Amino acid sequence: MAFLEMKNLVKCFGAATAVENFSLEIREGEFMSFLGGSGCGKTTTLRMIAGFEQPTEGSIRIGGAEVSNLPANKRGVGMVFQNYALFPNMTVHKNIAFGLMVMGWKTADIEHRVEEMLALIHMEEFRERYPHQMSGGQQQRVALARALAPKPKILLLDEPLSALDAKIRTRLREEIRAIQRQMGITTVYVTHDQEEALSLSDRIVVMRAGKIEQVGTPFEIYNRPANAFVASFIGTLNILDAHVVDAQRGQLLVEGQEVMACGPVPSGQVKLSLRPEMLSLGTHPSNENQLRGQLSNVIFLGSIVRLVIGTGSREIFLDTFNTPKLELPSVGSPVSIGFPREACLVME
Amino acid sequence: MDSIPVCNGKARASRLPAFGPWLGLLPFLLFALAFMLLPCGSILVGSFQDASGHFTFANIAHLGRASILSSFLVTIEVSAVTALGGTVLGFLLAYAITLGKLPKELRSMLLTFSGVASNFAGVPLAFAFIATMGRMGMVTFVLKSVFGINLYEAGFNLYSFWGLCLTYLYFQLPLMVLIITPSLDGARREWREASESLGASAFQYWRHVALPILMPSLLSSMILLFGNAFGAYATAYALTGGLLNLVPILIGAQIQGDVLHDPNLGYALALGMVAVMVLCIVAYQLLQRRSSRWIA
Known about the structure:
Chain A contains 8 helices and 20 strands.
């Protein structure tokens, strides 16, 4: 049963529609990410859940209760902001205690809860520090503890890691996930970073221009994208123009070369999408598909080596693991790309 | 063999810009020397001299006279009342144009007006108030003839303590708007939203978050307004003549007057004002330092 339910949400700012017919159900304890580019409506939707924006149309229910018309301070929703938003006049202890204090908790209970939260984020020794005396990562952990302290029904995170450097970002996102699992709290996470969404989420909502493009697990979103936008937004993708020869059998013609996909496929002109890591240099063991081209560049990406192969009018990326035994043809030499028919994503 | 550092054109060019900014400061330093430090020195020396130039503590001792103490008290009262009034009203106006979601055009219009009004003081301001709020002033006349309200019969007098306070507010209020607006701009929306999401009401947000954060700015602005009113001379003189016993007017009387002519007592009075102003500046600096740590 859905714990957080949004039905036909619409949000307009003047003549501009930021969110359009947004309907979604989130289960209790689920970690859901809203993923999309700038201006896709993900933050606006989050702010409507928080109560900072009033929906133009539609309804929001939390735990079965309608909250669309409730003010933010009555919704029982914790929020973590991109720029931490810690109160600069309060120490870490007072920041975490703030929500409990305004809710009228007893002093002893507040102390106990603050200690619990400090232990959760491993920052016991920082209790008397002010925000300006801490790093960005430390501030964000305190912001997380502050949001969780009053035991909210839902935790909302609005791009909480985007102001941090790459190493801290990776460590903190693991911490966020661990804390979320430990507390079992229903979480909505807004990000434009696909890696973050894929690594953290139980399910992902991919958004574009205020609309949902696809909802699914990271595995589904990556391996079975609903459309060309999702396919191109998540991961690196080779998108090739193809002509369908036999829609039932999945027979296509790409750059004058025959390719077999899993049929049936749409007929006429289609887009053939291939993930770089699904391709192999030379003949694939399945021996199903071969595309011939010329190696035009080799890019080292650490654990991965990316080969850029020209096939007529297009360039195709092919990713292979970087192993000590890896032998690559020289740039300019003719190569063939092998891939199984399961690797072919055919979209209109 | 040790290499010898060569001084080339590049090195010389990179040294010049470091010195350049100090050159820009030179006119200010000369100005401060000529019109602030030397007069201050002259005041200090003159305060401890009698009419014939001999050293004396008499002028400083005279500061303890009842009439002079009352003069300082009235000046401090006028400054405190107008600083408080300017702070409260200016803050409310600044709040309305920054966080109050008023149209942007109104904000820029009010800021421009504040820039002009905060510098509108002295004889023109006094005349403007006499022309509007004086016994025969336009506003007084309209209130009486249209609404039947006789300000002067109700006890109001432009040439009194409260009349002077009202006139001072004309430049104190817009000055407050100009000083506090950047601080209000620095108050982040997320603080309010974080506070709301934690269950706080608007009152709790202002009580525990916004006011404590803004308090150093508010207090330092109030001190600045206090100093601004404390040193005002022309407006008070033009409006009240000698009716109100303000320190700047008293100093003027000691230096220029025929009856009260005692320049060295004037210097001592000025020294007393400098001491009050120094206290204001120190308090302002301390509060600003605290405020800048919180509001980026």
